[in-house]
Design goal:
The protein is mainly alpha-helical and 160 residues long. The protein has eight helices and three strands; from the N terminus they run H-H-E-E-E-H-H-H-H-H-H. The C terminus is likely disordered.
Length: 160
């Protein structure tokens, strides 16, 4: 679940409802909330290890969801919302914070283009615009801090 939030910016609800059929390891594709995304090497390795563990731990489960636990393996429903809270208890980061950071990182790395953000993460246009604007501010602030000419300018009031 950490990889899905931190790499693919997946929401908790989308992660809960991922099905085994949403992971196509052979073609290196992952479908999250109806949007198919390519899988990089890291994203490929984590599900391989999880699916191996899942098969070993619950060999007879009929649950079609990717993430299961001892309780959900007995049925066909997704893991509970509490499953996520318990898994991350005591950690500084939350899945939501990882998801937001990933989207912002994309905007900072590839430029604050709301169309790209909407396409990569399946964002609502207003949300994509907000992330792009935040990235623009961060990029401008970073550029000002890195500008050697502005470094020597006096800060605060000028003159007596």
């Amino acid at each position: 679940m950490l990889m899905l939030a931190a790499v693919h910016a997946a929401r908790t609800g989308a992660i809960r409802f991922l099905l085994l059929d949403d992971v196509d390891l052979g073609n290196r594709r992952l479908t999250i909330a109806g949007r198919t995304r390519p899988i990089d090497e890291f994203t490929h390795q984590i599900p391989l290890e999880w699916l191996d563990y899942r098969r070993t731990r619950w060999p007879n489960t009929a649950n079609p969801h990717l993430l299961i636990n001892q309780l959900s393996a007995l049925g066909t429903g997704p893991v509970s919302k509490i499953y996520f809270a318990k898994s991350l208890r005591g950690q500084a980061a939350t899945l939501e914070r990882l998801r937001v950071d990933r989207q912002l990182e994309e905007a900072l790395t590839h430029g604050p283009d709301p169309l790209r953000l909407a396409a990569v993460f399946g964002l609502d246009p207003k949300t994509a615009i907000r992330y792009a604007e935040n990235a623009s501010v961060l990029l401008a602030t970073g550029a000002e801090e890195q500008d050697p000419a502005s470094r020597d300018e006096p800060k605060g009031r000028n003159g007596p």
